Every structure is written in structure tokens, then in C-alpha cells.
């Protein structure tokens, strides 16, 4: 019998991922089918950041937020009508408070595209409740790791924790839509090995210090916010748990869609990557 649900890090890419699934979308759908039953999904997204506090979305029926501009009109008509879960949101806020955070519930917050876009692939039927936890500002990689650790007990209470960010996130280059940039694969490969190291022996220091150690880190992430959900996801996991690498390829030449699932899914349906 499973005692803890897996933890996910998902690269949510551009908003167009909602209608252009590419390599990553079908893999997320297969992953959703292989996961154990969950009571709710908790999403940590860089598109909800709050100054000096952590907010937890507690709407019973969160709206779909279209927090982007300049994309095809069809994207703005999309809705992800999954329910929220106020009771589990309150439990998350209590855990954060016990860990020393100034945490409060937000009954009006909807789902930003960092949440609903990947959820459209992971759980396309929109029946699984979903709620979000904000990224408090200021926040660094070590702080994101601590945030995930504070939320980790929810894994044993029916909550699937998902950090939704981007393996690479250079908006200037994305808008240029140039050809594939070699640095994207180099940075992604370095992070993959660093995550494997964490899962083998718990050595997190490389990821915390990624801006100094990883190749092309400043180019891959001119700012930290889309990398921090990975640290939050790692914080909610434990060394020794099985790691599955979801290679979603590269979109628009510069957006790596690599994602990770950490922990045990249904054994008969998937064999985790051997570390």
C-alpha cells in the first residue's frame, strides 16, 4: 500500500502548450493514468508570486486565468473547470504556518496558466480538484526547497504536489523564435544529472548553486522564478525515491519541456528509470 503520492516537476512551456501538446502532452496524459488515485493536486507556479507571505487558493470552483497576451484567440476561450479543494487548502496553510511562514487563504484566486495548461494534459477530464500555493517573494533556490519540505506531509494525505515551471525560460529568445539553441540541451542535461544525484544520495547543493555551476544558467534563466518550482518539488521528495525523466523535447528552439516524476506510481503500469 502506497504511503505517499509522487511529486512532479512539469515544464509548462508557452501557453500554446494547451493546444500544441507536442512530445510532452501525451506523456503527461499517460502519467496521469498511471498515478494512484489522488484527492487533489497542489500546484506551485511562478505565475503566482506574493510579497512577504504565502497564499493558498481556497476557491471551491477556481476560475481559469488567462494571464498572457499576444497569443491566438482560441487560447482565451479555453477553460479548465476542475473544482478546488478548500479543506485541503486549509491544511496546506496550516502546515505552512507551522513551518514559520505567514500563510493565508485566498478564496478568490483562480488557476493561472502555469496550473491549468499542464493540468489539461495530466488530467484532461478536469475532475480532479486542484489548488495553488503561491511563491513568496523574495525567494531563492534554498527557500524554494524549504517551501516544498513544509508541504511534503500532504503527500500522505491524498495530495499530489506539482511544481510547474520551465526547464529553460528565456523570453527574449522565445520571442525571437530562432533555431534550436545548443545551450538548451546542455543546461537540461546538467540539471537531469543533478536531479539524479539528489535522488541517489540527497546531495542538493548542486541544484541550490545552479546559477554558478550549471552551463549557461544565466542564459537559460535570466531570472530564477521558473526554476524555483523544481526546487520546491525536490523539497517535497525524499532521497532514494524512484525518478522518471519525461523528455518532452524542445519547443520554439529554446524551451526545454523536460519534466520529472518522483516516487512510486502503479508498478504494473510503469517501470521508473533505473538510477
Automatic annotation (TrEMBL):
Any one GO MF annotation of this record: dioxygenase activity
Cofactor: Zn(2+)
Key words, A-Z: Dioxygenase, Metal-binding, Oxidoreductase, Zinc
SUPFAM superfamilies (UniProt xref): LigB-like
InterPro entries the record matches: Extradiol_dOase_DODA (IPR014436), Xdiol_dOase_suB (IPR004183)
Domain Extradiol ring-cleavage dioxygenase class III enzyme subunit B residue range list: 37-239
Pfam families assigned: LigB
Similarity remark: Belongs to the DODA-type extradiol aromatic ring-opening dioxygenase family.
Name by which UniProt lists this protein: Class III extradiol ring-cleavage dioxygenase
Amino acid at each position: 500500500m502506497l504511503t505517499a503520492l509522487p511529486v512532479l516537476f512539469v515544464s509548462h512551456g508557452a501557453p500554446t502548450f494547451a493546444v500544441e501538446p507536442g512530445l510532452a502532452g501525451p506523456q503527461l496524459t499517460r502519467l496521469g493514468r498511471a498515478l494512484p488515485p489522488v484527492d487533489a493536486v497542489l500546484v506551485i507556479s511562478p505565475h503566482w508570486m506574493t510579497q512577504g507571505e504565502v497564499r493558498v487558493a481556497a476557491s471551491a470552483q477556481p476560475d481559469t486565468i488567462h494571464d498572457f497576451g499576444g497569443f491566438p484567440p482560441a487560447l482565451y476561450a479555453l477553460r479548465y473547470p476542475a473544482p478546488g479543494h478548500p479543506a485541503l487548502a486549509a491544511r496546506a496553510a496550516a502546515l505552512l504556518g507551522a513551518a514559520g511562514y505567514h500563510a493565508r487563504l485566498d478564496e478568490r484566486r483562480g488557476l493561472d496558466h502555469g496550473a491549468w495548461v499542464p493540468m489539461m494534459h495530466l488530467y484532461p477530464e478536469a475532475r480532479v480538484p486542484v489548488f495553488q500555493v503561491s511563491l513568496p517573494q523574495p525567494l531563492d533556490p534554498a527557500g524554494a526547497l524549504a517551501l516544498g519540505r513544509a508541504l511534503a506531509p500532504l503527500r500522505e494525505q491524498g495530495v499530489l504536489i506539482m511544481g510547474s515551471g520551465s526547464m529553460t525560460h528565456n523570453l527574449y529568445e522565445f520571442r525571437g523564435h530562432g533555431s534550436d539553441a545548443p545551450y538548451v540541451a546542455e543546461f537540461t542535461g546538467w540539471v537531469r544529472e543533478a536531479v539524479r544525484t539528489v535522488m541517489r544520495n540527497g546531495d542538493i547543493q548542486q541544484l541550490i548553486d545552479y546559477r554558478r555551476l550549471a552551463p549557461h544558467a544565466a542564459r537559460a534563466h535570466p531570472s530564477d522564478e521558473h526554476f524555483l518550482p523544481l526546487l520546491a518539488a525536490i523539497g517535497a521528495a525524499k532521497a532514494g525515491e524512484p525518478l522518471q525523466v519525461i523528455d518532452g523535447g524542445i519547443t520554439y528552439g529554446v524551451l526545454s519541456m523536460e519534466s520529472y516524476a518522483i516516487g512510486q506510481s502503479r508498478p504494473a503500469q510503469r517501470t521508473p528509470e533505473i538510477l
